[in-house]
Amino acid sequence: MKKLIVTADDFGLSLPVNEAVDLAHQHGILTAASLMMGAPARDDAIERARKLPRLGVGLHLTLVDSCPVLPPTEVPGLVGQDGRFSTDPVKFGTALFFSKDLRRQAEAEITAQFEAFRKTGLTMDHINGHQHFHMHPAISKIIARLAKDFGNPPVRIPVEPLFPSYTATSDRFRDRLSGWVFFYAQSRLLRRRVRAAGLGVNDRVFGLNDSGAMTETRVLQFLDKLPNGTTEFYFHPATRRWPGVDNLPDDYRPMEEFAALTSLNVKGKANALGITLVPFREAVRRA
Description:
This protein is α/β, with parallel strands linked by helices. The chain contains eleven helices and seven strands. The protein has one domain: TIM Barrel, CATH 3.20.20. Helix 6 packs across helix 8. It starts with a strand and ends with a helix. Keywords: Carbohydrate metabolism, Hydrolase, Magnesium, Metal-binding.
């Protein structure tokens, strides 16, 4: 059986992102969205989500390239003078690994993000991390401990299978190989910890090697090669670009991703292949 979770990350980042999530769920194949609790358009996202009971809304943990939920004075080691998290995940991740004080601040901020999600009244459909930072050893440990108090939501394991990915696209074999090696190695501890905590996980994802470029053509290619089991496609859709520091990277194609999510060709192919479109909680059983 082929179960497919179709997720939009960065829910709450901006009104154009929220609009895309809303429309792609109502008129397209989108089944889930990952909510950023410190993002500028969070309140609008929550309001929309409450009107979309079939949309699986999860927690998109943010410790890089965003804003904290806690006041910056409570997490001074996590933010710069502008009150925002670092935009360098490698540098920050290394510092976090070696600093007990930074890990303490990170746990406080993550706990605050969990609690902020609880206050929305939404059921936590899943957990993942902005820029996949939930793979960090210190963060995965915190997630495994906290999740039991929030309904044991499933956790994204961000590994894209090499051969289905390459045979579907026939491009960038070396990039896809290096991506597979990196994410497989980095996610092993995450997988082990969350499964030991009784949390469900997906079998694989598509979108790692084509982040920001999950166009209609690419999605159709992946659907043709979709393995059995539980797969997640993840996107960064928006109805338009917007000004400001929180805009998506210049090389991303958010409007094309939105078009793919609402494409009749994509929806028709998923139906023809007998693929079941579901949110995380319906697709993934606990370990």
